[in-house]
């Protein structure tokens, strides 16, 4: 058979190792080509770092052929006069190869039999060879083909002539040993100039002797060329298996990414993660650790030790502080990178990271492989996943990448679980608000789709995407201060998946409802003022943003904008992608910007497509303007209705509250007039006192109305004198003023060292009004408690009602020190349906109108305005009918001034 013969291809293989049928096929082809009666193939086993024999075959019935002296190969041409010598041929023979002798009946696969180690220990299957050991190790070390002309020569060179070193039933007469290099093209892909690695070593041997027998020097060069095809077959099989494995990984990732509905529990999520790990890598021990920012504690919540799950850890996790785990804290919270080493071999790393190798999952210091994956979310880490295995090199680059992706998905799922738990208390109110919003949306839809701005923009971006056949389209609106562009509507294919772009930014979690979807879209913000965007918009006309401009813009964005630009537009899989931007202006006013990324493989849209987009943008701009005008008109109408309702409530309240003091004044005045002749001085004094008290009540009512009127329907900035105010001093003054008329016991529980930043007069008036309000609606002999505590803004987030949460302040000033002040009474309480109304003007709870308690319904409204003007919030924290209410407010906390004399004199002077 000629060295240029064409091999027929075997069937495809896609299992975890090289199929035996493929290896047997390759050996059969080499035996046919080089007239060999036996052959073995050793491949590099990276787990042990040695060559391992994977297959060893020979012609069937060799014993019978040798015993009958039947020639195993027909005679043919060849250097029969060549003198055999004890030499390993390592020199290259550049002479042209003569015509090979033809085999009359080349062996087929059925003619071959496997050589079992029990009969022949020569190149036994599954035996391993390090570099330099035996024929295989020698070929690996030299990386060149060579010939050994006799079995005795083989024993002399590699076994010092010991005949009993190898147990074999048949003795080969000559050997041809060929190293198998990685294909050159694939090596070039790995890196230019990088030498190719060795895939394995093939050994061919003959059993014949006599003239023309044995391997010839020219066959050495031919063998090197022939094994290139062997290498290609092996590489092709490996690539097929790698492709199949990648497909399986993607299927597993898809399964785990869709396994987190809103009702998912942490236990279910962890169990799915465990199953995923066992399907991807060898992990005898697993440890999942989470960090809770609220409690500042580290929790080991799931552990597997030597394939045995540690039960009960989810209910009673191992808890520790960052001071108790400094190594874990440094790796996961500061360095935030993947850590991988072999504890049993890397003694220095094992000593350095000893803390990570022990704990709830047992002692892993003797493990062959260790892997730590931080669970990163945005710019913070919420925990870690640790794996260990008794298998050497258990975690390759491909597996680590898959595990990192899985950990990212699990991290998002765990954060969602935390959010579900945190929002559980507000779920009822949120559902009520959703129902209200659904009713409003339904009413707007019944008017006209064109007049609904949200539906209009959604339909707009969907139409644009359909017209130009893109999978992404977004509409940005300029903020009122013209500083930023905020996304208002976005279209994206539901089947699109986000790929890791190496930015270390987290993937966007899928929204759970429309409200959250809209809020997620509005998180996409792009800077506008003093940027190249503003300049390009002012120049007029549409324009394209190139990749470098988009990257520059992403660096100036917050997290929402950066994630949008990098994970949806600047994808490595779509190089050179640009975004078409069309400014949408009404007359000279900028309404918004339409952003349309170009499809894959397209750098610019066609003129016809751009013309279509310009036309639809012009029409949509007018529609948006009309919808906004309609919305403004509806808002003004609603405001008028609200003012009309407030007017009615004011008339009811004023008539009710003014009637009582006026009736008293008129009644006692009438008595004085009718009984002036016989009335006594004590009676005159009593009547005058009653008249004065009623007049004072009337004056207080009018004063409150005047203050509320000065505040106006629109917020009016109050003139404040901000300075440090001692909470205890203000509380004592307010309590002492009330104690003269109150029938309740006032308990003052305030730390003297607590100071706030505010206006002393307004601060004291707020406390006084809240105490007076508590006294009005509390039964005699009951108790009113005034308390204050020092805390931080982020710590009271769960106490605030939804309408009093300033999300921007919670993010930017979460660690701001505050003083939390409560006034708790034992009165009649407030009904749930009235809780949202009591802070409005002229509003009193309906049942309070039937009591003898007098009031204008302005006290709480004025108190809230004063507190907000001083930088705080006032709300009803808790109210139980017939058991009492708790009104709470906070103000910025400050340190006690060094010299208080000047402050106190200033406060008294002002008051």
Automatic annotation (TrEMBL):
Protein name: histidine kinase
Histidine kinase domain residues: 653-895
Catalysed reaction equations from the record: ATP + protein L-histidine = ADP + protein N-phospho-L-histidine
Matches recorded under CDD domains: HisKA
UniProtKB keywords: Kinase, Phosphoprotein, Transferase, Two-component regulatory system
EC number: 2.7.13.3
Stored Pfam families: HATPase_c, HisKA
Gene3D superfamilies for this protein: 1.10.287.130, 3.30.450.40, Histidine kinase-like ATPase, C-terminal domain (3.30.565.10)
InterPro entries hit by this protein: GAF, GAF-like_dom_sf, HATPase_C_sf, HATPase_dom, His_kinase_dom, HisK_dim/P_dom, HisK_dim/P_sf, Sensor_HK_Regulatory
SUPFAM superfamilies linked to this entry: ATPase domain of HSP90 chaperone/DNA topoisomerase II/histidine kinase, GAF domain-like, Homodimeric domain of signal transducing histidine kinase
PANTHER family: HISTIDINE KINASE, TWO-COMPONENT HISTIDINE KINASE
Any GO MF annotation of the entry: phosphorelay sensor kinase activity
Chain positions covered by the region annotation Disordered: 91-110
């Amino acid at each position: 058979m000629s060295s240029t013969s064409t091999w027929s291809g075997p069937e495809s293989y896609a299992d975890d190792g090289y199929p035996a049928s493929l290896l047997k096929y390759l050996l059969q082809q080499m035996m046919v080509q080089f007239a060999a009666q036996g052959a073995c193939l050793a491949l590099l086993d990276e787990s042990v770092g040695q060559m391992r024999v994977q297959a060893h075959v020979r012609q069937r019935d060799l014993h019978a052929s040798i015993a009958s002296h039947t020639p195993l190969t027909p005679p043919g041409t060849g250097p029969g006069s060549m003198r055999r010598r004890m030499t390993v041929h390592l020199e290259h023979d550049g002479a042209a190869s003569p015509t090979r002798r033809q085999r009359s009946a080349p062996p087929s696969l059925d003619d071959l039999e496997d050589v079992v180690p029990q009969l022949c220990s020569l190149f036994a299957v599954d035996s391993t060879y390090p570099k330099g050991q035996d024929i295989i190790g020698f070929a690996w070390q030299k990386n060149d083909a060579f010939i050994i002309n006799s079995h005795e020569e083989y024993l002399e060179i590699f076994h010092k002539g010991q005949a009993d070193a190898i147990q074999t039933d048949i003795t080969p007469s000559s050997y041809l040993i060929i190293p198998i290099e990685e294909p050159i093209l694939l090596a070039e892909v790995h890196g230019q100039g990088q030498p190719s690695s060795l895939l394995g070593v093939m050994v061919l041997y003959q059993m014949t002797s006599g003239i023309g027998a044995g391997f010839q020097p020219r066959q050495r060069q031919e063998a090197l060329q022939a094994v290139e095809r062997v290498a290609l077959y092996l590489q092709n099989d490996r690539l097929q298996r790698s492709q199949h494995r990648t497909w399986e990984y993607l299927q597993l990732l898809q399964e785990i990414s869709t396994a987190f509905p809103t009702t998912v529990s942490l236990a279910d999520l962890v169990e799915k993660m465990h199953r995923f790990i066992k399907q991807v890598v060898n992990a005898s021990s697993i440890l999942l650790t989470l960090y809770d920012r609220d409690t500042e504690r580290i929790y080991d919540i799931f552990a597997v030790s030597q394939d045995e799950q540690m039960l009960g850890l989810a209910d009673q996790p191992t808890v520790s502080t960052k001071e108790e785990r400094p190594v874990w804290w440094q790796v996961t919270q500061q360095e935030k990178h993947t850590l991988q080493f072999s504890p049993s071999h890397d003694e220095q790393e094992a000593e350095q990271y000893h803390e990570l190798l022990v704990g709830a999952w047992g002692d892993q210091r003797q493990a062959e492989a260790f892997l730590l994956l931080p669970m990163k979310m945005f710019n913070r880490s919420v925990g870690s996943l640790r794996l260990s295995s008794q298998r050497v090199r258990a975690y390759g680059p491909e597996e680590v990448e898959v595990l990192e992706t899985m950990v990212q998905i699990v991290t998002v799922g765990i954060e969602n679980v935390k959010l579900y738990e945190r929002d559980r208390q507000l779920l009822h109110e949120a559902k009520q608000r959703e129902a209200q919003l659904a009713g409003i949306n339904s009413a707007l839809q019944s008017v006209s789709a064109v007049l609904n701005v949200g539906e209009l923009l959604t339909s707009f971006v969907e139409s644009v995407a359909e017209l130009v056949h893109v999978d992404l389209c977004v509409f940005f609106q300029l903020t009122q201060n013209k500083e930023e562009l905020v996304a208002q509507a976005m279209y994206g294919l539901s089947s699109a998946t986000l790929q890791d772009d190496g930015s270390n930014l987290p993937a966007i979690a899928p929204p759970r409802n429309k409200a959250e979807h809209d809020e997620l879209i509005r998180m996409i913000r792009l800077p506008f003022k003093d940027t190249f965007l503003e300049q390009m918009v002012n120049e007029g006309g549409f324009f394209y943003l190139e990749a470098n401009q988009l990257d520059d813009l992403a660096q100036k964005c917050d997290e929402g904008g950066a994630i949008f630009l990098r994970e949806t537009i600047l994808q490595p899989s779509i190089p050179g992608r640009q975004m078409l931007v069309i400014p949408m202006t009404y007359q000279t006013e900028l309404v918004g910007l339409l952003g349309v990324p170009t499809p894959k493989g397209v750098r610019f849209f066609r003129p016809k497509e751009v013309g279509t987009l310009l036309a639809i943008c012009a029409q949509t701009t007018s529609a948006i303007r009309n919808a906004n005008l309609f919305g403004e008109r509806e808002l003004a109408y609603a405001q008028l209705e609200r003012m009309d309702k407030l007017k009615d409530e004011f008339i009811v309240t004023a008539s009710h509250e003014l009637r009582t003091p006026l009736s008293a004044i008129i009644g006692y005045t009438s008595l004085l007039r009718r009984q002036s002749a016989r009335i006594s001085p004590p009676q005159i004094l009593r009547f005058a006192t009653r008249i004065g008290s009623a007049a004072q009540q009337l004056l207080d009512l009018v004063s409150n109305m005047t203050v509320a009127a000065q505040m106006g329907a629109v917020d009016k900035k109050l003139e404040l004198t901000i300075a440090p105010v001692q909470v205890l001093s203000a509380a004592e003054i307010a309590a002492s003023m009330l104690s003269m008329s109150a029938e309740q016991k006032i308990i003052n529980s305030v730390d003297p060292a607590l100071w706030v930043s505010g206006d002393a007069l307004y601060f004291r008036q707020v406390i006084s009004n809240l105490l007076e309000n508590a006294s009005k609606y509390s039964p005699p002999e009951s108790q009113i408690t005034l308390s204050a505590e020092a805390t931080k803004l982020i710590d009271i987030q769960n106490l605030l009602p939804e309408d009093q949460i300033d999300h921007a302040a919670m993010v930017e000033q979460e660690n701001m020190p505050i003083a939390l002040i409560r006034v708790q009474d034992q009165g009649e309480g407030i009904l749930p349906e009235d809780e949202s109304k009591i802070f409005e003007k002229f509003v009193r709870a309906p049942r309070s109108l039937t009591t003898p308690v007098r009031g204008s319904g302005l006290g709480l409204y004025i108190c809230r305005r004063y507190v907000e003007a001083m930088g705080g919030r006032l709300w009803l924290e808790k109210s139980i009918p017939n058991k009492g209410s708790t009104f709470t407010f906070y103000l910025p906390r400050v340190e006690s001034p060094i010299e208080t004399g000047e402050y106190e004199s200033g406060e008294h002077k002002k008051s």
